[in-house]
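Example record used in the benchmark description.
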Amino acid sequence: MDIQIGTTGLQPEELIALYDDSGWGKASQYQPEMVKTAITNADLVLQARVRERLVGYLSAFSDGVSSTHLDVLLVHPAFRGLGIGTALMRAFLNHLAPTSLWVLGFEENAGFFERFGLKQRPVLRAWSASSTEWKGAVASREA
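Model output (structure tokens):
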């Protein structure tokens, strides 16, 4: 396995396939140009490759001073349990500026993140909306 920092060689279509294989929606829901923009706009991208195949991906956003947000951490289901997620997290944390780190994750992944010193903050809540939902809400308030 090879961990690469940066976007060199990363094609939107292979990330879309990884999303699909990992259960993050169907490939048909993603447009290559939008995924390319997401890749380009991330402050940090890490790729895990096995024989040049993309099997893991991590992206993050940071102001470099006060906070960093881990955006996506994916490992292909056929490659889980082999230490790829751990390798991506270690590379991420070693590359990270000394900021607060924020991660939104599923409950079943709590133990994984706690191994890296992250703590659940039960008083914090997450709010989310798709672009259609929040644009509709804004439009209805402006009417």
